[in-house]
Specification:
By secondary structure, this protein is mostly helical. The chain folds into two domains: 50 residues; 230 residues, no CATH class. Helices cover 81% and strands 0% of the residues. It has eleven helices and no strands.
Length: 295
Amino acid sequence: MGSYSILNTSILLLLLTSHDRFMKINAHHIIDIYSDIRDGLERLFGKIYAVWLREFKVFLRERSRLVASTFTPLLWLFVIGSGMGSNGFNSINANVDYQRFIFPGIVCMSVIFSSIFYGSYIIWDRKFDFLKSVMVAPISRGIIFTDKTLGGMTNFSLVQVSILLIVGGIIGIHYTTLSLVQTVVVVLLLSFSLTSLGLALGSYMHSLEGFQMIVSFVVFSIFFLSGALFSIDNLPDWLSILIIIDPATYAVDALRNTMLGIGSKPFEVDIIILIAFTAGLGAFGILSIRRMKAI
C-alpha cells in the first residue's frame, strides 16, 4: 500500500507539472498569435489610410467639381420639382407635394453621378503613371480597390448628401435621428455599389472621352429607371423589368420610406436587396481591378 500511494503521488505531481508547462506554452502561443494579428491589422489599415489620404487630398483640390456636382441636383429639385408640381404632376400621397416626393430621388441622383464618374480618376492615374507606382507597391489590388471606393464614398457622396439634407429641411422634409441614420446607411450602400461599378468601367477604358460617353449612358439609365421622378407602381411590364434590375430603385424607395413614410416596399426589404447589389458590384469591381493593366 505504501508503494502504491507513492506511485499515485508521483503520477499526480507529473500531471500537475505537465499541465502547468502546457498552460504556459499555450499562453505564450496565444500572445504571439495576438501580436501577429495586431501587427497585421496595423499594416493593413496603414496601407488603406495612405491611399485614402491621397484620394482625400485630390478631393480638396477639386472644390469646383463639388460645387458643380451639387448644383445640378438642386437645379432638378427646384426647377423640375416646382415646374412639374405646379402643372399637375402629383405624388402617390396627397399629403406630399411633388417637390418633396422627388427629393429622395434627387439625393440618389447626386450619389449616382458622383460615384460612377469617380471611375474617371483611375484613367487619370493611368495617364500620369501614378497607377503604375501603386500597382508595383506591396499592396494587394483588393486594397487599392477598397481605398478608391472609400475615397469616392466619403469625399464626394457624403459631402453632397449632407448639403442636400440641409436643403431638404428647408423645403419641409422632417428628419429624426433614426431617419438620418437610415439615410446614411442607404447612401453608403448605394455609393459603394456605384463607385465599384464606375471603377470597374474605368479599369477597362484607356480613353477619358470614351469613358465619359459610356458612363453618361449608364448614369442616365440608372437615374431615370430608379423611379426618382415617378412612382414605380402600375407601370408597363417591360418598364417594371428594367426598374427591378436597377440598384438605385431600392435606394430611392428606401429613402422615401425613411424620409416621407411612403414606399413600394418595406425599408428592410429595400436594404436587403441593396446589400446584395453592393456585394455583387463590389466583387465585380475587385475582379476588374485585378485584371487591369497599369499602362
